[in-house]
Design goal:
The chain is an alpha/beta fold and 473 residues long. The chain is 34% helix and 15% strand. It contains 20 helices and 17 strands. The protein has helices at residues 6-9, 20-23, 36-43, 54-57, 64-72, 76-84, 90-96, 100-104, 116-129, 153-164, 181-184, 194-205, 222-228, 257-268, 293-304, 325-328, 340-343, 406-410, 439-442, 447-466, and strands spanning 16-17, 31-32, 145-149, 168-172, 209-211, 231-234, 240-241, 254-256, 285-289, 309-313, 347-349, 352-359, 365-372, 385-388, 391-394, 398-400, 434-436. The chain has a five-stranded parallel beta sheet with strand order 5-4-3-6-17, sandwiched between helices. Strands 8-15-9-10-11 form a five-stranded parallel beta sheet. Strands 12-13-14 form a three-stranded antiparallel beta sheet, with no helix packed on it. Helix 15 links the parallel strand 9 and strand 10. The longest helix is centred in the last third of the chain and has 20 residues, at 447-466. The radius of gyration is 23 Å and the shape is globular. The mean pLDDT is 97.
Length: 473
């Protein structure tokens, strides 16, 4: 805990955003960090709550009260060591995690949780600024070789942990650059990609080898990895998007969200698009179908591309503005949330289902035929309406990993949802040397869950190879 009476004396303060009119002109991060003295004060708000539910709210089990107290006492280096003992990449989670820890904070009963996410980000940013974040090179090498397939957060976390355990680790990534959805899905204005590059350099110094533009199951057989390495960890994510099979789906202008977002991220990083046809929102009426984070990223990107208008619709009912704490706390509540991108100028509507995409007569989308649904997602008669659209982005989530290629070749067992079958103790698939973690195993989820699974899978692999392990779970 921080100051015993801090939660009574110190009001909650959090980071602010640059004005919308300014930030939509660029793709840079726009969060204004708090001054160091204010961060110290915020750490002092962490109370002696007896049972710190923030521990269970955080998927990586960050020791939150500990480093809050350290920040309050300005023991920044110790706070950094404590933070990094459970989280390999706090600069990522400190920017893009939805902070279930804050929902679980005891002070959230009064809607005034400790600014945990902001403090976490301040600790790691200060660590990088002062040169405290250094490569951790294994003192002894085991001689064991491990292949990690997929360079997203789960794969990076697994690779870093395994390299620090002394194994020779190679990461195989299908894209030109490492990062997975961190790099190609999340816009730069939410996560500057130099943060990923910095971690990759650190991991290279720790002994990790990165093979990019290398699709396992296409450019190199999956079985070749199994034969060559002592263990293989599958962390390829859940990339099969949920589609909308309705009339007009094949019209020009109807795209999956990731097609749109990936292109813009490549433009920002000056990575060539090859022969891909540009998907751009400039001057268009954009409709985003899906109310989650991906949909929000589509909104922010469309606005920066100077869309004429942006409308977001979702089939779920509009959530309450405030949750019933007696029923939900300390669990993640369903309540109305407005993202920074939505604040920038999107119209939103709930309980909406799309029945058809309307052709303009030339094979292009011109509008959506929609109707309202009740609590059971049944059509409300007489509620039909249309929304004009030149560009429709499908942001309805992902269903399962892509099976074509590596998974079909290896023949690993899948669960009922189409994910790679493996438990959370051994992380071992139906093939003894092959392990799986992250979205490829659990389905679409949060970056912080991917980091957790990558770390735990690394421990399981280390124990499989060596008979015992000192890696944390």
């Amino acid at each position: 805990m921080g100051k015993p009476t801090g939660f009574l004396e110190i009001p909650r303060q959090d980071r602010t955003y640059a004005p919308a009119g300014d930030r939509v002109r660029h793709y840079d991060e726009f969060v204004n960090p708090l001054p160091e003295n204010v961060i110290v004060q915020q750490g002092g708000r962490c109370m002696d709550c007896g049972i710190p539910y923030c521990h269970t709210g955080c998927p990586v089990n960050n020791m939150i009260p500990d480093w809050n107290d350290m920040v309050w006492n300005e023991d920044w280096e110790v706070a950094l060591d404590t933070l990094q003992s459970t989280n390999n990449f706090p600069e990522f989670t400190g920017r893009i995690c939805p902070a279930p820890c804050e929902a679980a904070c005891t002070l959230n009963i009064e809607d005034q949780p400790v600014t945990i996410k902001t403090i976490e980000c301040a600790i790691i940013d200060k660590g990088w600024e002062n040169g405290w974040v250094k490569p951790i090179v294994a003192k002894e090498k085991t001689g064991k070789k491990v292949a990690v397939v997929g360079g997203g957060p789960a794969g990076l976390a697994a690779a870093q942990q395994l390299a620090r355990a002394g194994h020779n680790v190679a990461v195989y990534e299908k894209n030109r650059r490492v990062g997975g959805l961190l790099r190609y899905g999340i816009p730069d204005f939410k996560l500057d990609k130099t943060l990923i590059d910095r971690r990759v350099r650190q991991m290279e110094e720790e002994g990790v080898t990165f093979w990019t533009s290398m699709t396992v199951g296409k450019d190199i057989p999956g079985q070749k990895l199994v034969d060559h390495y002592d263990a293989v960890v599958l962390t390829g994510g859940s990339e099969h998007p949920r589609d909308l099979a309705i009339p007009g789906r094949d019209l020009n202008g109807v795209h999956f969200a990731m097609e749109f977002l990936t292109q813009q991220n490549r433009r920002v990083s000056e990575e060539p698009l090859g022969n891909e046809k540009d998907i751009l929102a400039g001057g268009k009426k954009v409709v985003v179908i899906g109310g989650g984070d991906t949909g929000s990223d589509c909104i922010g990107t469309s606005i920066r591309q100077k869309a004429l208008s942006v409308t977001q619709i979702e089939i779920m009912p509009k959530p309450p503005v405030r949750e019933n704490k007696g029923l939900t706390w300390p669990n993640w509540p369903m309540k109305l949330r407005t993202s920074s991108s939505q604040e920038e100028g999107a119209d939103r509507d709930w309980s909406v289902n799309t029945a058809e995409f309307i052709d303009d007569g030339n094979g292009n989308v011109a509008a959506l035929k929609c109707y309202k649904v009740d609590a059971n997602f049944k059509k409300i008669e007489g509620s039909e309406f249309e929304i004009e659209a030149d560009l429709v982005l499908l942001a309805m989530g992902f269903t399962n990993p892509v099976k074509e290629g590596m998974l079909e070749e290896l023949g690993v067992d899948l669960d009922g949802r189409g994910n790679v079958l493996a438990d959370t103790n051994e992380y071992q698939t139906s093939l003894p040397k092959v392990f799986a973690a992250g979205d490829m195993r659990r389905g679409q989820s949060l970056v912080v869950w991917a980091i957790r699974e990558g770390r735990q899978a690394a421990r399981a692999v280390d124990e499989f190879l060596m008979g015992s392990t000192t890696l944390p779970r």
